Amino acid sequence: MSKATAEYLTARAADLTTKSTAAFEIGISKNPDKVRAMLNLWFATEFKPTFYNERDRYAQGSSTTSGLDDVGLLDPSYSSAIGEPGGQEGRYPVRMIDLDTKRLVDYPDIGPQSQYCILSHSWKGREVNYKYVVDAKSKAFNRALAAAEVDKPSGDRTAANGAKLNDIDTIKHQCLLDIVEQEEQIKTLVQENELLSELGLNVSNVVEGLLSRRVDVQIVEKGHDGRGGLQKAKNRVATALAARDYEALEDEVFKQFLGDIGLEEKKVDKVINNETAIDKPKQSAVDIADAERVLAEEKRKQSKEAEKIQFFERHGHIREAVEELIGCLQRSKSMVKIEQAIERSKAIFDKNPFPRTEKRYLWIDSCCINRGDDGEYAKSISAMGEWYKNAEFCLVHLDTKRDVPKDSLEDWQVLKTAIPPPQPNITSYADIITHKPEWSTRAWTLQELVMSRTTFYVNSSWELLSRPVEYLGPWYYLFPFVSLYTGIDTNNPFTSVLEERGSTASLVEVLDRSDIQYHLENDNPSNDAISMAQKLITMFEIMDLRIPRDIDTETARSRIAQSVYIAASSLTASGQDVTSDGRRLLDNILEVLRPHMSSSRVYSLAERARYAINILLQCLVDLIENPVLEDRSYIAAFGNVPNLEPWRKGLERSRFSTHKTMSLVCGRDATVMTDRAYCLMGMLGVRFPTFLAEGLTKALSRLLDEVVIASNDVSVFNWSGKQYGSPIRGRSLYPSSPEAYKFGKDEERKKQKDKKLSELLQIERYEVMSDFLAISGILVDAITFVKNRKQKNVPLVWVKEILRIIKRVEFERIRPHITNIGKILKYAETAFESKLVAGSQASNSPSTSNPGTPGASAEETASKQSDASFSPLVSFSPSIKAPSLPKDVSSFKAPKFGRKKTEVETAPSKALSQQSSSRGIGGFKTPSLKGFGRKESEASQSSSSSAKVETPINSPEIAGLSSPPTTPSLATPDSTNNSLGSEVLSYIKSIKITTGDKGGNTATSEPDLPPELRKVLAEIPAREFAKPHVKSEEIDTMISPNPILVKNSGIEGLFDIQRVVVSLAQPETLRRQVRNAVGQHQKITGWCIISTGFARVMVSFSCPKNILKKELDIVQTVESKVLKGKNQDESSDENEDAGGDDATKDSQGGALTVESTWHRTIKARSDAAETEKKAEPKKKDEDTGIEEPGPEVKAEGARVSRMIKFVQESDLTQIAGEWVLARFSGVPGAKWFLCYLELGGSGRDFYGHRIATEEIDFHNASPEMGLIKYWEYYMMQKKYRLCSILQKLMESKEWSNFKMEMGQNIIRKVAKEAGVAEQEDGPGEDSDDEDGDKALSDTLKDLGGMALTMATAGLKQQFYEYRAERLQRNLTADVLKKFPTHMQTAMESLDDNKDLMPSMFHSAKKIHMF
């Protein structure tokens, strides 16, 4: 190609590129949709993903690893220790006793070929500690060395052989030497001081005599059980007296509080004296009497043993020698404990299916910790929980009580073989719970029990307390995790075998048929399920299934799946000997399972082996699940570990809720007080170095710091008790003692009073609620009954009379009659049903029915429209809020058609209209039917008069048509039923509507009924209406989703802040205490009332002087401006929250406030003018006619309204400086606590300081009195609306009946007029005279008017039905419109019987708590 050609082509290509680019840009700008479609075509992938259902895939047999694909495989070196606070380091004790060699080993190597157990016991006096062990070994070595240096044939060979003894025998030998040495020392001291004659003893029994005397003195000093004595009796009396004085002071303050809220004196006594029996003394008086009785008994003992006491006071060296002998005896008994623990541990390892390892160890805290080394001791205390967690089992020694003086004398006598050993304290495992061992009251034993995998129990004589589940060995602990694993094995082809009865037994029998030698140490236990489980465990051992011991809920499935996979692969490997025991056992198991194969898919041998092992694991779980869970529940009962459900199920052994863990340690004893905090580190999953000198408060604070940092557990802060506030700066959120998490005696007494007060204040509310529920149930049934009936003969006479009474009657007046009214309506429904069935049968009879009669046809049609079945509704949903309904349509006068009436014809109608002031049903003026058609002859008049008897339309009421048609009652023509109807109406009319009616009966019991009515209602069951019950929610885990920062200066987090109205009891006394306080941080205690505007609680508090001083000034201001309403323009404030239909708009769009009933009720001021208003008659609601609350109630309502507006402050900076309620935000179950809130230095930060109080429990809070009174008014309004629903339905029903009768009358009138015309004119003749034409015209006009009236009645019927449905649908919403918005929530809460919890709080505010 030439150069010119190349240049031409290049230029042409560039030109084409430019033009294409320009065209492409033009195309994009003009038609982007085409470009987008083109790009989608270019870049759309041809791969279409396919989604499938995981369960369907498994069901089709696609999974080939029996659940192994569902879990992750872990490295064989993985250990659950990586999730522990200490990690891999410090998982095992630093020193243990070798069970086989009986030597104390430092830093034993715990691994696959070694295991250890732990002894849990109670320390009794002097124990064999590590220092004593070292000294004993040193003394033994020195004795052996001295014997070796003596070059004589008669040397002490026993001492020389001592060097060859093991550590346990060496310690035991040293204990005996110490006792002998101390015995000789006592004899020497007595002889040197020539005291044998004074004691009246000889040399042979002087030691035992002195020991007996010292025991008698110790009984005086400590009591028979070691927990009494003279000094403790004195302390008990002083404590009881202080408790009585405090209770009296609390009662005085409580009385003042009850008087302030307006409670009557009788009710005050019921709250204060809350004992059930009137003549029963107070518990404080009983405690004082018991303490004084014990003190008198201790003084008597002291006077009796005065000579012995004086002897030891004169001879102090003898006393010290005897005390040292007692210590030697206690140490000797401790040595027996160590020796027996070794023997029992070896037996448990040998006789139960624990893994066979080369080394087995025992750890005992008394002799395996070097307390002289502070570093080792601190490390041991912090890691002890994990040591228990990793041990194979824990051996629990249920010994007798500690510090019992007579034990030392018995030990001496047993040592000298003077008496046989004492009888064991517990004889069987089932007797443990009745014995109530002291072991379950110790602080450390809580962690030892909860953290251990399995526990075995021995009594005081070291006899094993056996139970069937102990034969399971490690499977007792592994069972819950195996259950988790088998839960994922959903596609096992052998699953059907588990559904057959006896399948487990057939699988267990394979072991005996496989000709395999095995041995069970306990092959005949009392439980058959455990016996079969033992054989299954043996089968797992033969197949070499090894499940790791350190598994947990998070790793259980992965690690067990891995173990099953390894065991199955090993059994089915190509080089595996097919004649080995494991392979022969597997083949026999597969042979049994082969008929139960549910899949046609071909599985490999390894897969079938895994499936078979999984089936055996599931069988094991089914066998031991109930026995293990029952055993753990029994242990929780006698071990004093309630409400720890994850531990009872065996799934968790640490990281429990802090609140529950702390409540468990309450009441448990510890020799060192800081141990009450240190002993919980393992259960809470934390570690920190210990320091004995820091004290319990500081130790508890550091423990809670670690818990909050590790887990964000908010239950840490759910404590109460004014005496338990922490004195540590920056830790006011923490308590000073674990007892703060559990109610003491004082808090429980206060809680009972709060509950009593709450019940007393709410009893009237409960009565009104119960009455309303009963009445609403009656009305709802009546509404359903009326609504579901289509006949004209619906029994409404009794219903209308009852409705007239219920509509405006007060709850107190209607209360005694509710049961009878319910029975009357139920009788009406039942009687109507029976008449309906009888009427239907009669209408279907050919002998009584006349198809040719129009009236009969109408009746038959009406009968067919009825529904014989009746199922009244029990409730309806009034929760939808809708605008208020319009007033009733204005009445109008129906036009008159036909010829002009004469005076004679119109006279009866006028007379009747004068007698009745009613304008007819719903306000319609019903038309007259007289003069219908042509001028009547005498014959027609006689025919008409006879028709009056046959047709209801010709009755006097209907003839005049100035009142609604009469609804037939249930009464039949016989005199009995007429008498019953009269008695019913008479009884109903006897109920007085208001308290102002004379002759009203306010009795709470049911009134006497007339004899006939009582006889009829006796067989009618009373309607039952259950009171709603609201149960407080219980939360197990309270982990904050928001960060909580723990700093040296305090704790920072997000809090909900609720402004409250605080009133201080005895403010002048508190002011004096503030003035007399020495320092700014001196604690001052008192009582305060906390109100949210809806409910109030009274609690005692303790806070520093500087905080209380500020609050006293704030309380005075709030009381003046909010509670008393001084210097406030209430008229403007109380109309701000009017909502709904109470506010309208003017033409310019401005809001014009329209006063509602609620606003009119709360405008009364608490001043002198209210006294004059009390004498005025009560006003009534314009809409309902219900009496409005009186002036006192209005004033109380105004006060509540001011309080609600006060607590609704939206600006948090305006609340700073006050006491508020606070809780952690976003955590269900977090409790409210009292807090002093202040503004930070920057003006944007907030600081807080928790004020220690009793529990602030709004579940037992007392509603504000004004709120209660207006709630009763709310319930009256609601009852009125419910009655209005029934009234509208009855009016609709009456208009329906009137429309039906009008249509029947038109038919009869036309038929009658046609018959008269035929008689006068003759057949085939036409009447063309003027009178006849005019009469025909009048007839047509009357017929048209009647048709228009009938159509109007139909419209009226539909209108009343529609209005009743809307009233029913919007019942609660319409009533709530009468109250301001800020009160509606409280009304609904009271209506639903809910707790008035704080609800108007500032959410998620960042607060730094000091």
How does this model look, in words?
There is one protein chain. This protein has a six-stranded mixed beta sheet, sandwiched between helices. Strands 8-14-15-16-19 form a five-stranded mixed beta barrel. Strands 9, 10, 11, 17 and 18 form a five-stranded antiparallel beta sheet that branches. It is globular and about 165 Å long. The chain has 1410 residues and is α+β, with helices and mostly antiparallel strands. The protein has 49 helices and 19 strands. The protein is 52% helix and 7% strand. Residues 57-68, 836-976, 995-1005, 1025-1032 and 1128-1177 have low confidence and may be disordered. Helix 1 (3-30) crosses helix 2, helix 20 packs antiparallel against helix 23 (581-593) and helix 31 (797-808) packs antiparallel against helix 46.
Keywords:
alpha+beta; six-stranded mixed sheet; five-stranded mixed barrel
Number of strands: 19
In angstroms, what is the radius of gyration?
Answer: 47 Å
Biggest beta sheet attributes? 6 strands, mixed
Spatial sequence of strands, sheet with the most strands: 2-1-4-3-5-6
Query: Which class best fits the helix and strand makeup?
Result: alpha+beta
- Fraction in beta strands: 5-15%
Helix content: 40-55%
Output the number of helix runs.
49
Rounded mean pLDDT is 74
User: Ends: how far apart?
Assistant: 92 Å
The shape is: globular
- Catalogue the unreliable spans: 57-68, 836-976, 995-1005, 1025-1032, 1128-1177
